[in-house]
Amino acid sequence: MRIVSVRATGLAASVARPLHFGIGAFPSFYATVVEISTDTGITGVGECIVRKGPQVTKRIVEELLAPLVIGKDPWDAEGLWQEMLGQLRRWGHSRGFLVEAISGVDIAIWDVLGKAVGMPVFKLLGGCGRDRVRCYASSIYFAGVGEMVAQAREQIERGHTALKVKIGRPPEQGGLRMDVATVRAIREAVGSEVEIMVDANGAYDAATAVRVGKHLEEADVAWFEEPVPPDDLEGYARVRRALRVPIACGESEFGIFGFRDLIARRAVDVLQPDIARVGGFTGARKVSALADAYHLSVAPHTGFSGGICHLAALHFAAATPNLGAYEAMFIENPLMDIFTESFPRPSAGYLSVPQRPGLGMEVDWEKVRGFTVE
Ligand SMILES: [Mg+2]
């Protein structure tokens, strides 16, 4: 089997009501979708994470990566991944847009491989004897306490047993007092059985994170995500030493090198690779193996990405032995709805993984065209 073409498409969509969290207000969703065709007629799809400029990733895929993989056998997925990363690695490009672009190509390659042998990707990776994965509802964004409590209750009614709450408010939105009050009110409302994760998106400095974390210990928080900015490794280590709440991070990290450093600094308990950022399935499984070696759990990040990223992360979660929980987003995100059917829904805290070959869901290109950036 040979790859004959690689096509990338930039997508964008906006919502009327922006989400507010530790980074600020968020009104727009982006993604770059990759489609790979082979000489057997089998095609595969992947997605590159995009926070800004979907056309940037598109150009990297088409100008830097496509020439490397066209004419090659997709069964050499690991070799192709090394080649894509290797071409600019010696010049410092082992992070950022390049690795995000590689991720989309790698996911599409694994979709092709699954279809070629008639197996879902999570089985092809070496399944874990599960066809559904533990998940949590993500996320409850900044709003009044009453509204956040109501959202928490609604998610529990919809079949979730764990949920994530955004903290890290700026002073003008009530600051850390409001953060702590919100988490306490939600704990009160949902009872002691429900798992509550909190996520500051790096909004605190280490001293403030410790202070907030001490209050949150009383609310029996399952993990404290991104208490400080992703590049403050010493801050992470300091927060982790000071608190008995597990520390989670990794959505902003690239490949195995960033995760290696986080682990080496004893900075983290729960690793959160994003499959559309860390290098697709090939990159994500390396992170999973690293985590396994250090007895850390893996909780795949999905966030604001499009449906293909969420779907690929579901397969990765199903094939991850040391799985914590999969991030099941419940927010309004137009780019989630690009398939011919709707995305799996939670039931009693679990999501079922599609069983059909490859990623197991069909992209509706008519819907994709509606979001395409020219
Ligand atoms: Mg997060």
Written overview of the protein:
With 374 residues, this protein is an alpha/beta fold. The protein folds into 2 domains: 122 residues, 2-Layer Sandwich (Enolase-like, domain 1), CATH 3.30.390; 242 residues, TIM Barrel, CATH 3.20.20. Helices cover 40% and strands 21% of the residues. The protein is built from 12 helices and 12 strands. The strands form 2 sheets. Strands 4, 5, 6, 7, 8, 9, 10, 11 and 12 form a 9-stranded mixed sheet that branches. Helix 8 links the parallel strand 7 and strand 8. Helix 6 runs parallel beside helix 7. The longest helix has 22 residues. The chain is globular. The relative contact order is 0.16. Bound molecules: magnesium ion (MG). The site of magnesium ion has 5 residues, from loops.
Tell me briefly what this model is.
With 374 residues, the chain is of the alpha/beta class. The chain has twelve helices and twelve strands. Residues 199, 201, 225-226, 251 line the site of magnesium ion.
Which properties best describe this structure?
12 strands; Enolase-like, domain 1; binds magnesium ion; 21% strand; nine-stranded mixed β-sheet; globular; 40% helix; 12 helices; 2 domains; three-stranded antiparallel β-sheet; TIM Barrel; single chain; alpha/beta; 374 residues
Rg for CA atoms: 20 Å
The biggest beta sheet reads: 9 strands, mixed
| Tally of DSSP β-strands | 12
**CATH architectural arrangement of the largest domain:** Alpha-Beta Barrel
Helicity range of the residues?
Answer: 25-40%
Q: Which secondary-structure class do the elements indicate?
A: alpha/beta
Question: CATH superfamily name of the largest domain?
Answer: Enolase-like C-terminal domain
Q: Could you name the CATH class of the largest domain?
A: Alpha Beta
Bound molecules: magnesium ion
Mean pLDDT: 96
Query: What is the distance, rounded to the nearest whole angstrom, between the alpha carbons of the first and last residues?
Result: 32 Å
Strand content: 15-25%
Q: How many structurally independent domains? A: 2
Give the H and E element order.
Answer: EEEHHHHEHEHEHEHEHEHEHEEH
> Unreliable runs, pLDDT <50, ≥5 residues?
none
CATH fold annotation of the largest domain? TIM Barrel
How many DSSP H or I helices?
12
The general outline is: globular
